[in-house]
Amino acid sequence: MNSSTFIATALADGLLTTLVITLGASAVAIILGITIGYIRVSSFWAFRCLAIIYIEFFRGTSLLVQLYLWFFVLPFFGVTLSPWTVGILGIGMNVSGYGAEVVRAAIQSVDRGQYEASVALNFSRFAMMRRILLPQAIRAMLPAWGNLLVDLLKATSLVFFITIPELTSASKQAADTTGNYLLFFAVALFSYYLIARLLVTPFVRLSERRFSRGFVREAVA
Amino acid sequence: MSDSISRIGNVMALKPSNLPVNPELSPAKPFVRFENVSKRYGTYTVLDNLNLDIARNEKVSIIGPSGSGKTTVLRMLMTLERINDGIIWVDDEPLTHMQKNGKMVPATNAHMRRVRGKIGMVFQHFNLFPHMTALQNCMEAPISVLGLSKQEAEARAAELLDMVGLGDKKKHYPIQLSGGQKQRVAIARALAMRPKVMLFDEVTSALDPELVGEVLNVIRKLGAEHDLTMLMVTHQMGFAKEFSDRVCFFYGGKITEQGPPDQLFGNPQNERTRQFLSAVLEAG
Ligand SMILES: Nc1ncnc2c1ncn2[C@@H]1O[C@H](COP(=O)(O)OP(=O)(O)OP(=O)(O)O)[C@@H](O)[C@H]1O
Ligand SMILES: [Mg+2]
Known about the structure:
The structure holds two protein chains of two kinds. Chain A is an all-alpha fold.
């Protein structure tokens, strides 16, 4: 195999890895973020406390150290996770800490009248949250989630430290091998930008459209 | 199941004898009863030892100056505010309390939910769900709370929207409706839960004058065609006079005067009532 195909393959693999980790960790971050954010506004004091501890831990400590913890320390307790599991869950949980706060703020920003109407219509707390408050909160939180997911994408380069070669490390290696630093780092920068632009932005746009029904005046269908 | 619970919970029978029976209250069985109810915010007393009985199907209007506690009365009955003293009863059951080991204790959320199912409320600022069409606004609670099927809920919602004159606006989102239309959707939405008591808090105050009539017409129709106990806070003296069986004048957290509208408007006994009425009439 000649060296340029070797480099191209390594870069493509790295790009694919970054994509997969980004998608997986985003899914984890969104699901856990909404769940923890929902628990954060629970009417039970103990639940709220647990959510706060979760949020404080994942937001308050370094992502790299968290990844090290899952990857190098958990095995001492008999839990050995694959690098991919640690990468996806570790980054996803870290971002979900920020996400949970975004979700909490968005839920609390929904007009109080919505809550009062739900009580008057005798909704259970759960139904009120799921059918009335969350759909409105999601609309309010989408821009913040857009930022979080772009940050998440950039943070995926840290999985290199738990042995997964990804886009950044593959570019570095290609640059080291060829000496062409300008080219390969330019390729890396541009790739990150493209993923953000082609993956995250459309996802946020689409969701915005989906959850904006009724908030902008438009012709009746 | 809820039937048997309400039979067990028929607390008139269980009512502990140590509760003082207030002589101001009529002996006839009221549908809603405020018994020595007080509401305070910190040291500020909003409602002071309120006693008010409302008979089944009675239409009661609440009038009075700003800050006199009118909204608070409705919000307490809707369980949107906790009370500090006294008991509120609905259909022979305590709403704010429940029987436990022969004693009255503050109601749990589950108890309040069961009893407040009999109550519906319409708000000054509509509080429609903005992400749902008029039809969906009226279907959501019957489906999620009462467990109706989608078809049943839709049929019920459509019928009610027709009743309030919005048969052609079912697919509209709240933002696509006028204020008067929004308020009529809100009335239909509350009725879809088949409440026995309806609370109206200044439901025309946020409307342009020319839209007030369409909403009042719907309320008139409700009063005429449905078995509903109605309690409304209003600044529309003309409507209160024509529509209600009884008018209560609130002042400083107390009912200062109450009676049939002809008497209260035609021949008020209390100085405060006279002042208030003449001020309102002057303002036009
Ligand atoms: N959350 C609260 N904290 C403190 N005070 C409150 C609160 N809610 C209401 N109040 C006070 O309680 C009093 C009664 O309020 P309420 O809303 O019942 O008046 P109202 O008769 O409906 O007046 P309006 O005609 O202006 O609607 C007012 O003095 C108000 O300032
Ligand atoms: Mg008021």
